[in-house]
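Hi everyone, sorry if this is the wrong subforum. Our group has a chain we'd like a structural model of before ordering constructs, and none of us has done structure prediction before. Sequence below.
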Amino acid sequence: MEEKRKLNFFKRLKIAIFNLDEYGIFIEEKLSVSIKFMLLIIIFSSIVLAGVTDYLLSKELTKGINYFENQFPDFSFDGTTLNVERYEEGYDEEYDIKVIADTSEIGKEQIDEYIKKTKDATTSIIILKDKIIYRNYDIQNDYTYEYINTGFNLNNLNKADVLEEFKSLGGNKSIIATGFVVLFLTLLIENIIEVVTYILLVSIVAIFVGRICGIVIKYPVAIALSIYSLTVPVLCSLIYGVVYNLTGFEIKYFSAMYLMIAYIYIIAAILIIKTDLMKMSKNLMKIKTVDEEIKEELEKKKLEEQENKEDNDETDKENDEKKDDSKNDNKQDEPKPKTENPDVEPDGSEV
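Answer:
Right subforum, don't worry. Here is the predicted structure as tokens:
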């Protein structure tokens, strides 16, 4: 088995985007590693989108404050009603915002006329005597001054007091910093919920495709592979969000494309893993065959050595027996020594 590779965030990101053939290394990892990887991407995306959105809002806020300070007429506010010195109508072409201020006694027909007049703008604000009508695209909300003033107890305010209070709170910088934090937390929660939903959908597809391919994929593994297959869609969503905020360029059915990219990645990754497993199985079979052949050769060689040893032992035994027989024959051929007989009497030849 290959030693597990230790991957930092950027190497992991590169594999998730470009190297589908290396997705197999994510199978043996802990699920917490994959979750941490995706969480870092989500945090990064939330920071970038919050920064871009806050930058655009800061420009819009600066423009609005300048308009309020230099062009908007003086007014007085007693906590529940607002009185503006004169009728005011303004329009900003860059941000497509229309403002109408009329605090005179007008009826419902005139209010409906103002609403109809501002419907061609993306955002509109209608300032009336007792409430503000705010509309963004097709969503309209009415806010009474009594409701807005709840908890503030603002009374006897005029234009100069509002500007002075705004500057005492830190002006644009304070609002921009607070806005960034609020936007970041909001986007972070929204992105986490969205990505978790997509992970669950893609993981179901991963298990289904795995069964078709004959691979049993456990759910934690399916979630891990789904996380990495969603890397490209999440980054594409970030790029699209930045471009849309800066230019207004819109891609229809982007959500469908988002999921389609993830499905393509997860299916391709599983097919590659299946191919790798088949190659590994073939290699194991080859290794097993070679091992069996080597084992047979060793056993054969061992038998031959044993037979040779037995033959040598028999030959040595025969040689030993021949040596013993030769020794015995030599002993029989040796001449017997002469012995004197003291009991023989002299024959008289001696004097």
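For your construct planning: The beta strands are 75-77, 82-84, 88-92, 97-101, 123-127, 131-136, 139-144, 157-158. The mean pLDDT is 83.
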